[in-house]
Amino acid sequence: MVTVTHAELGSRKIVHVDMDAFYASVEQRDEPSLRDKPVVVAWKGKRSVVCAASYEARKYGIRSAMPAVTAARLCPEAVFVPPDFTRYKAVSEAVHEIFGRHTDSIEPLSLDEAYLDVTKNKLGLPTATLVAKAIRQQIREELNLTASAGIAPNKFLAKIASDWRKPNGQFVIQPHEVQALLLPLPVGRVPGVGKVTEARMAQVGIKTVGDIFAMMMPTLEEHFGRYGQRLYELARGIDHNPVVSDRVRKQVSAEDTFPDDLLLDQCETHIRRLVEKVWNASHHNARAAKTIGLKLKTKEFTSLTRSITPPVAPVSLEEFTKIALSLRERVGCAPDQLFRLVGVGLSNFQIDAEPVPPLFEDAAPNDQSAFLASNG
Fold first, then answer.
1. Domain spanning 184-234: which CATH class is it, in words?
2. UmuC domain location, by residue (predicted)?
């Protein structure tokens, strides 16, 4: 078996912190009657999906991104709570304040998870394990929530490790343990390998990380293109990507999935509400967005997008609203065409200005952005 050196794995001390069932845990913390009950954070409706599920609900097989109707069928006694993203964001900011006591090298992935580079930490703790323990203890004592953590020489391994002892645990991957821990894992545990890629892998006989490890890089590149090299390295625990603080957001967007299909003219109220949500997530910082986008999904699930880059970026909510609404005129559909979803976005930010903070990292039907947090 090929031995991967410590230098190849990385010499940094990386901690991946992942809040436990974040949205559901916040709801249970703030409402005592919900504690120890199967809580599902979602709107109840035929097109709604689960934003988060408490660990009590997960025992019934309920998971994030599952249709809400399926969750209700799996657990008829589940308590459905509509999401409150403003409250979750406030709690997330409190969690990140705790991170900042230990390091300034923080890369948020969503409201509920982040990478921290603690190779040098502010408190001078001798090990990353102690840093992770201190962070988790402060989250528990100050916010009455629990978090899990993974500690490793690089980001990829740290993320794998944070799942090992969930909930409310932490796990360290030492360099000499990498291959023994990685190779038996199903490929679905590799960050970035979704259902589509997993299905493609199954077609060529790849089911575990060990199957990837056994393949030569040219073969992986033949099947997966440039991603083949990345898979080759990840199967060996190699990841040279640094923790990037203040990662520049390429866009800020929000979407609505309607309870019932609507005509284009009937979407105006939803567009106005989404415009306000996107504007509130971005207008306070100096990064003017040059491009305004409108996204629509027809009753038949066909996606349509229209965008415009005006000579001057919108400087007010009213101007942004006017431009977003005007994009409907460019859709060019039949008058009786019905739509199931509408989205609004800002993109093409000025590169010499401040980055957008991670305000909109969570998705849910009827009130969603472009991202769905893992809510581990």
1. mainly alpha
2. 14-194
Contact 369, 18 (CB under 8 A): no
ω into residue 259 within 30 of 0, thus cis?
no
Tokens of 361: 């990292």
- pLDDT, the chain, mean: 86
User: Can you name the CATH fold of 22-83?
Assistant: MutS, DNA mismatch repair protein, domain I (3.40.1170)
CA distance 153 to 266: 53
Q: Is 112 annotated as a binding residue?
A: yes
Report the SS3 class of residue 255.
strand
**Hey, where are the domains in the chain?**
22-83, 184-234, 251-369
Q: Looking at residue 141, what is its pLDDT? A: 97
Neighbouring C-beta atoms of residue 148, cutoff 10 Å: 24
- In this predicted structure, what is the pLDDT of residue 47? 76
Catalytic residues: 113
d(CA 287, CA 248): 10
Burial 219-245 (b: 16+ CB within 10 A, else e): ebbeebeeebebbbbbbbbbbeeebeb
Tens digit of each residue's pLDDT (9 = 90 or more) over 126-174: 999 999 999 999 999 999 999 999 999 999 999 999 999 999 999 999 9
Structure tokens at 175: 């360099």
User: How far is Cα 300 from Cα 306, in angstroms, rounded to an integer?
Assistant: 18
Q: Please report the pLDDT score of residue 43 as a whole number.
A: 83
Distances (CA, A) of 1 to 26, 76, 109, 236: 46, 50, 34, 11
Which residue ranges of the chain lie beneath pLDDT 50?
A: 286, 352-375
- Cα distance between the two ends of the chain: 33
Instruction: Indicate the CATH number for domain 251-369.
Output: 3.30.1490.100
For 133, 302, 364, the CA distances from 138, given in Å and listed in that order, are: 9, 47, 29
95 touches 143 (CB < 8 A) = yes
> If you search the block for the tokens 């916010």, which residue do you land on?
143
Rounded-to-integer distance, Cα 261 and Cα 306, Å? 20
